[in-house]
Amino acid sequence: MKTNIKNLSLSDLGERLKALGFEGYRARQVKKWLYQKDVSSFDEMTNLGKEYRRILSEHFSIPSMSVHEVHQSIDGTRKYLIELPDGKSIESVMIPTESRNTLCISTQVGCAMGCKFCYTGTMGLARNLTIFEILEQVAVVRRDLDNSPQPQRLTNLVFMGMGEPLVNTKSLYPALEILIDPECFGFSRHHVTVSTVGIAPEIEKFGDKTPVKLAVSLHATTDEVRGQMMPINKKFSLTKLFESLKKMSLPKRNRITFEYVLLHGVNDSLDDARRLAKLLSQVPAKINLLLFNEFPGAPYKRPPDEWVLKFQKILLDKGYVAVIRKSRGRDILGACGQLAIEKSAA
Ligand code: SF4
C-alpha cells in the first residue's frame, strides 16, 4: 500500500527519499511542491526528472480532504466542516479581522477534556488527528480563500478548535514544523499559537519542541472553581500548572497568553480579577478576556458589559495587557465543535 506522503514529518520524508536513492536536496524540492505549491500529483513536480516522479508515485500518494459544508457568518467568520478519510468530521473556523485572517484548527475528533463551558466537551474523544489531517485543514481553507472572488491570505493559526493539542503531540509537533517552514506553509512562528487546558508535563517540554506561542485556558483563579469547570484541574492543579509554566523555556520578550472566559457569578468577581493578577505575576503573561458564547443547554451566562470593563480595569491597573475578545460567528454557532455536533446529530 502506498504511503500518504503528506502524513510524514520532514525528517521522515528526508529519510524515505534517501532510502529510495534521492539526493539530499530532492526532499526540499518535494516539500515545496507539496506544501508551498499544493500540487495534487507527482507529475506536476516538473523540476524532478521522469524517473524520480515514477518512483514517487510508485511508493506514495498525495491525497487531499474536502470541505463538506461552509457556513458564513454575517461578521465574515467562515466555518468549514471537513470530511476526514474515515468519514468522520472536524471543523476549522476562519476569523477575519481588518489586519489578519486567523484559522482556528482542530487536533482531535471530539475531546476527552470535558470542559463544562465547551460544546465539544460533551462529545467525548473519538480519535487523534494525523499530521496530514492537521495540515490539510490549512490547505483546504487556503484553497478556498485563493478561489474566492477577492482572494485573501491566511496570516495566523490558532490551535483552539476541537481537541487538546498537547495530548496529540505525535502529530502536533511535526505539523507545526511544516507550518512554519519557509519552504512549506511559511507561517511566522509569532503568528502560530497552541492553546492548552494545562497538561503540565507537556507544557514543561513545549518550548524545547517548538518555537511557536503558547496559550493557556485558565478560566478560574481557585482550584475549587477551576476543578468544577475543567476536570483536568483535578489532575494538574493551579500550582502544578504554574510550576510547569515556570520550567518551560520561553524565547526572550515572548509572553504566555492566558484565556479567561468570564462566566457571570462563577469566576467574574473583582476578587477573581485581583487573584488572577497575582497568579499571573509568576510568568510573563498577557490576558484575553473572552465573552462566553452561550449554546443550547449551557449552564453559564455571560456578565453584563459594564462588569467586564470593571474586571478588565483591575488587570490593566496592575500593568497587564488584558484584551476583551468578542465572540465571532455567533449566528453560525461559533464555539468549537458545535457545527460537527449538529452534523452528527442530523
Ligand atoms: Fe476540549 Fe478545548 Fe473543549 Fe476543553 S475547551 S473540552 S480542551 S475542545
Question: What does this 3D model show about the protein?
Answer:
The chain has 346 residues and is α/β, with parallel strands linked by helices. Helix content is 36%, strand content 20%. It contains twelve helices and 14 strands. The chain has helices at 10-19, 24-36, 50-59, 131-146, 169-180, 200-209, 223-229, 232-235, 238-247, 270-280, 305-317, 338-345; strands spanning 3-4, 60-61, 66-72, 78-83, 89-96, 101-104, 108-111, 124-128, 156-159, 192-196, 213-217, 256-262, 285-291, 322-325. The strands form three sheets. The protein has a ten-stranded mixed β-sheet with strand order 3-4-5-6-9-10-11-12-13-14, with helices on both faces. Strands 1-2 form a two-stranded parallel sheet. Strands 7-8 form a two-stranded antiparallel sheet. A hairpin with a 5-residue loop joins strand 3 and strand 4. The chain starts with a strand and ends with a helix. It binds iron/sulfur cluster. Iron/sulfur cluster is lined by residues 111, 113-115, 118, 120-121, 162-164, 197, 336.
Task: Set out the fold topology.
Blueprint lengths: L2 E2 L5 H10 L4 H13 L13 H10 E2 L4 E7 L5 E6 L5 E8 L4 E4 L3 E4 L12 E5 L2 H16 L9 E4 L9 H12 L11 E5 L3 H10 L3 E5 L5 H7 L2 H4 L2 H10 L8 E7 L7 H11 L4 E7 L13 H13 L4 E4 L12 H8 L1
Parallel strand pairs: 1-2, 6-9, 9-10, 10-11, 11-12, 12-13, 13-14
Antiparallel strand pairs: 3-4, 4-5, 5-6, 7-8
Helix pairs in contact: 1-2, 4-5, 6-9, 10-11
